[in-house]
Amino acid sequence: MKTPSIILIYICLCLTTWGQQTRSHITDSVNFDIIFEHFKTHKYPIGNFRVEISDNHIAFHINEIALKKPIDDKFPVSYSVIYQDRLISLFDPGVFVCHSLSTMNRDYEFEKILNTKKFQYHWLLDNKLVGISDGKYYVLNLRNNWVEYSTFVPFTHQPKLFEDSSYISFFDNHGEWGGTVYFYNKTTEKIFFTEASSAKSILKKDNKYYVLSSLGHAFGFARLTEIANPDKLSQIEFEKVNKTVNGEALGYTDKSNASKKIFNWQGIEILSSFIYLNKTIYLVYWNDVTFLAEIESNIIKVVNPLLNKGIYSHNPIATSYGDLVLINMDFYGIAREREVSCIIIKNNKITKLDWK
Question: Per the domain annotation, does 25 fall within a domain?
């Protein structure tokens, strides 16, 4: 193991001044001064990677907005989703709250349409708004009425990690005892699994699935696993999903050898991944600061310092909605597994929404 070297390539790029981000401050400049000084003055954990400031920075128009909670001491019971150009959130006691993506104002009319039942959890499945109410699944139809959802859903009160035309993926996390990522085949209705300690996101590239997992125990770690064919993983019956074996995560019992490690790093957390302008971008948390980066071999290249502060989440999930990416973020010390904030990335704009 080598101490990660900090190769800070600081080139005069005629960048405008970067100040401390506030809720009213919006910027689309890129300046690495603050993160540069942070890297110089902080002690780095041991790891088999290194961090650089990228020559190819990415400028974003960045804003941070506080969203008022409908109930002061409550956070959303399930992760918010994007549906019909709205951010759809669900609060106790089963009340939907909707915000227009263009203005971030409340859409009270659409809330009236949704709040004809009390729901305990909700998702976007097959591009449809689906919720569970008193043990039954319902879907919002084209007439904006809730009707029973006849398609099988392989989970109840947990978020969806990923979905495409073939699979629905979800996960469990048992902390230091490991975690599991599941692939539910929509056609065969079979469930396959492998080890992923705190799965964060899945990207599909060249018909392969790349599972990012990361956990904050000790100095933290980050792993990227390539799965060419989820059907080659070990299979599990639905009744055994989310269970442990001898006190450890089910994922450890996968002996299929159908997954391949791309990297496995200690001393860093990578909270999320998404595609932007055909590039794979990672949301990295390292030494109390969070930034956006590209990864080349074992080199983490910072492309944007984001808000120049530590933004943390225990179980964030990134979901792609075409040209838009939504990253849901929880924080265990504040709201346990409930959403406390989310990040929306579209075109060259990043908006961080905080439930306050």
Answer: no
pLDDT in tens, 38-81: 887 876 666 789 999 999 999 999 999 999 999 877 999 999 99
Cα(73)–Cα(249) distance, integer angstroms? 33
Strand partners, 95: 91
Tell me if 86 is assigned to some domain.
yes
Lowest mean pLDDT among 12-26, 296-310, 340-354: 12-26
Where in the sequence is the domain holding 139, given as residue range(s)? 78-119+121-156
What span, in angstroms and rounded, lies between the C-alpha atoms of 183 and 155? 12
Which H/E stretch holds residue 286? Answer: strand 279-286
Cβ contact 259:227 at 8 Å: yes
Q: What is the Cα–Cα distance from 339 to 133, expressed in whole angstroms?
A: 20
- Closest of 310, 347, 349 to residue 34, by C-alpha: 310
Residue 81: name the closest of 167, 136, 134, 159 by CA: 159
User: Distances in Å between the alpha carbon of 138 and those of 102, 111, 281?
Assistant: 27, 16, 35
Decide if 147 is inside a domain.
Answer: yes
Question: pLDDT by residue (tens digit) across 223-261?
Answer: 999 999 999 999 999 999 999 999 899 999 999 999 999
